[in-house]
Amino acid sequence: MITATVALLVLASAACAYADGSGDPKPTGSSDGEYQDASGNPTFNIGKDGTVDWYTQVGYLRYTANCMQCHGPDGLGSTYAPSLVDSLKSLSYSDFLNTVTNGKKNVDTSQDLVMPSFANDKNVMCYIDAIYVYLRARSDGALGRGRPANSEPKPKDYAAQENACMG
């Protein structure tokens, strides 16, 4: 009984070590400057000196241009839309993609929450991984408020990918 209780406590504390609906955000690999966690989800990489990966930097810029109007500065929410810093603590990458792509409607007598679909908005969808990476870093407490001061250089093939997506 004591062994089972100790094992349960160890599992619970490991789950609380990071606040991320997608699991442990530690990067285990990268491809063209985009880092992935052990599950293959996009994740951030922040150096000891505070230098962020390119996707985190671009995610900040794209979030600010496309999401901040409703979700507030730095993903902290507003009177109009919820905090994404809080939401990503329980929202998986696939749930995030689904919500952004398809929108969400939760209307009842106590609330009227409606997020439009961004499926056809290239300014969002071409940068969806970068936006997610930025919000994931904010949600996990790895990145503070405001624009990151330093970032890794733009990956060699990034401009070609961006141009192909934007058309």
Structure summary:
It holds the Pfam family Cytochrome_CBB3. The chain is mainly alpha-helical and 167 residues long.
Explain what this protein looks like in three dimensions.
By secondary structure, this protein is mainly alpha-helical. It has one domain (20-166): Cytochrome Bc1 Complex, Chain D, domain 2, CATH 1.10.760. The chain is built from eight helices and five strands. A three-stranded antiparallel β-sheet has the order 1-2-3, covered by helices on one side. A hairpin with a 4-residue loop joins strand 4 and strand 5. Helix 2 (54-66) crosses helix 7 (128-139). The longest helix has 15 residues, at 2-16. It is globular. Residues 1-19 form the signal peptide. Residues 22-44, 143-167 are annotated as: Disordered. This is C-type cytochrome, methanol metabolism-related.
